[in-house]
């Protein structure tokens, strides 16, 4: 018996799938809808909403001490310096190599 070619294997697999699909019974009946015959209930809320006035205790200003601001400023300046140094180094390398 000769070996099957790839094409024959694909056709056989397709026929197997087709036979399993055609064997399934088709559903021709519509699903029944179960409507409840209970009388409609009146709506009763489980909680009530109360209008409250907006609170006047809002803080718009950050309350950090000056030392924290100086530390943040120092970190940002250091980051800016390192970034500029890297960019300048890249430009120099690009000019030398390119």
> In percent, how much strand structure appears in the residues?
under 5%
Helix/strand/pairing category = mainly alpha
Mean pLDDT: 78
SSE sequence, one letter per element: HH
From the N-terminal CA to the C-terminal CA, the straight-line distance is 67 Å
> How many strand elements?
0
What is the molecular shape? flat
Number of helices: 2
**The biggest beta sheet, please?**
none
Poorly predicted regions: none
User: Radius of gyration in whole Å, from Cα?
Assistant: 38 Å
Fold and architecture overview:
With 98 residues, the chain is mainly α. The protein has a domain at 64-98. The chain contains two helices and no strands. The protein has helices at 6-23, 66-97. The chain is flat and about 85 Å long.
What's the quick description here?
The chain has 98 residues and is an all-alpha fold. It is built from two helices and no strands. The chain has a domain of 35 residues.
Describe the secondary-structure layout.
Elements: H1 6-23, H2 66-97
Observed structural traits:
mainly alpha; 98 residues; 51% helix
